[in-house]
Amino acid sequence: MILGIDFGFYSVKVVVFDKNKISVIGEKKITEDFNRFDPDKIESSNWVSAFLNLCKELKINFKKINSIVSSIGGKKISIKSITTLEVEEEELNNILAFEAKKIVPLDGSDPVIDYHILGQNNKEIDKIDIILVATTQKIIKAHNQIIKGCNLKNIIFDAAPIALLNCYKFNYSCPNDNVDVIVNIGCLSTTIIVYGDNQELFTREILIGGHQINLEIMDLKEIDYKTAEENKIKHGLSVFDKNDEVNDANSIQIMQRNIFSELSDEIRKTLRYYMKSKSSLSYNKFYISGGSSYNIGLKDFLNNNLNIEFEVLDPFKKIECSKSIKNISSYSVLIGSVLSHHGNNSKPASVNKSNISGSPILKGLNTVKGWLLDDRK
What we know:
- 30% of the residues lie in helices and 24% in strands.
- Strand 10 and strand 11 form a beta hairpin.
- By secondary structure, the chain is an alpha/beta fold.
- It has a domain of 140 residues: ATPase, nucleotide binding domain (Nucleotidyltransferase, domain 5), CATH 3.30.420.40.
- Strands 8-4-1-2-3-14 form a six-stranded mixed sheet. A five-stranded mixed sheet has the order 11-10-9-12-13, with helices on both faces. Strands 5-7-6 form a three-stranded antiparallel sheet.
- It is globular.
C-alpha cells in the first residue's frame, strides 16, 4: 500500500493506493478560520495538525503502509528540458548544477537537483535530451520538517508537475505528432504543462491561484477574506460583474478586466511562446485541473476567451475509488504521485545531500528508467 500526501496551502489531502484502487481518500483544511488565512504565515505545525487529525478521522492503519510519497510544487520547484553533449557523469553533473542555479528560487541555500535522461536528441546525434528538476536545500529541509512533525519516516519526495504529468499519462492517450496542454490551477499558482510523445516537455508557473482571486474580490467588494471565499464558491466569475447584484451563477460575461482576464492572457502568452519554435506542431487537447479550476464559469470563460475547448482532467478515469469525490481534479497531483511510485521498491534517498552527487533527494525523479510513465523510448 502507498500513502500519498499533498501538503497544500488550502488543505492537506491523503490517499491510500493499493492494487490500482484508492481505498482511503480525504481532505482537511489547514484552518477553519479563513479570516486568519495567510499563506506566508502558515507554519509546519498547521500542516502537521491537519494531517494527524485527517489520519485519525480516516482511521489509516500505518502498519499496512509500505511506502509514503509527498510532492513539492508551485514556485518551490523548477523543471527544464535541456539538450547537451553526451559527456561523462561528473561533467554532466557540473553542467546541470550550473543550469539549476538559473532557475531555482533565490533563498540563500544551495540548489538540489535531479535529472532524467530521455535519450538521444532527434536532430543532433551527438547530443542527449534531459529533464532537469531543481529546488533548494532550504525548501527540502522545510518540507522535511513537516514530515518529521507528522512522525513519518522514509518519505519519497516527488515533484508536483511530474506527478501531474504522470496522472495525465496514466489516464489518457498522448499524441505522437502534436502536444496536449494541462492547466492546473491551485491555491497560490497555476502550472501549465505542454507535452507530447517524442516532444520537448515544457512547464511554466503563473503566480495566479485561488488565494489571489480572493484578494481581488476583497478589494472589489470591500469584504473580509472568508466572505470573499464564500462569494467565489457561490457565484464564481459573476462576482466580478460591475453591478452590485450578482447575475446568474452560470454567466460567463465579464464586465471588466480582472484576475481571470490576467490568467487567460498568461495562458495565451505561454501557448504562443511555446509554438514560436515549434512551427511543425499543433495543440491537440486541453485539460484543466486543480482545486481552483472549479470556479463557476471559469472553464467556459477560458474556452471563449482563448477559443479552445478545455476538458476536466479526471485522475480517477482508470482507477477505482472507494468514495465519491466532488472536485475530482483537485486530486490530480496526489494521484499522480502514488502512480509514479506504484511498484517502486527502491529505497528513498537521504535528505542530507545538498546536490546531485551521491544520492538525489527527489527520489521520484531519479535516473532509474521508468520514473515517467511510458517514458520515451
